[in-house]
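## retry 2 of 3
previous attempt timed out at serialization; input unchanged, resubmitting
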Amino acid sequence: MVQRRGRKAQYRRVLLKLSGEALMGQQGFGFDPRMAARIAEEIREIHSIGVEVAATIGGGNIVRGISVSAAGMDRVSGDYMGMLATVINALALQNALEKRGVFTRVQSAIEMKEVAEPFIRRRAIRHLEKGRVVIFAAGTGNPYFTTDTAAALRAIEIGAEIILKATKVDGIYDSDPAKNASAKLISSISYQQVLDRGLRVMDSTAVALCMENNLPIVVFNLLRRGNIKEAVMGRKVGSVVHL
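## retry succeeded, writing output
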């Protein structure tokens, strides 16, 4: 349990999973500096109460490997393009955080020493212990693996206590709320139920990894200000995936 300035957080170390689309804001492509600033401010707030924060970001606002492969490009090449897009997003978020006085490190699964550190587990943990936010970029460094899987893998490697999965909806629904106005929000669900029902929370590999390591996932709406802190404080927000 983390405690500072009289406030308590439920979790000591968390991994925040952001989609690339989250950084677009209201734009149709790329990233909106205003949205990056808003996310950075919410991260700064939980960091200021002593929570150790790591993050992963997708690259869908720039390029999706699976989408370009569907258009005829080689899947492996497309996936590497997607990994590089996540590095761009990680650098954008790093800039927004450091403008707010939060020391940040970007660690990339693909070596590019001029702009990011290589991913080294012990170094990442040490950064967190020293109060730095660590942003993991370039997925796992391997094609065919999504940033969902990278988030689950990195969270387990660094000993995170929970994955905070930020989305554009209020949580997990029994059907697509964009297509079904009667879709119902599920407040609590098991990993196995997610897999059995084919709910699109995270990809099945990521969910299975979390299940095997008993790593809970909170799925919540990033567009509602304060939800990151609500989740960290252990308050009821979004949907929880657990054993």
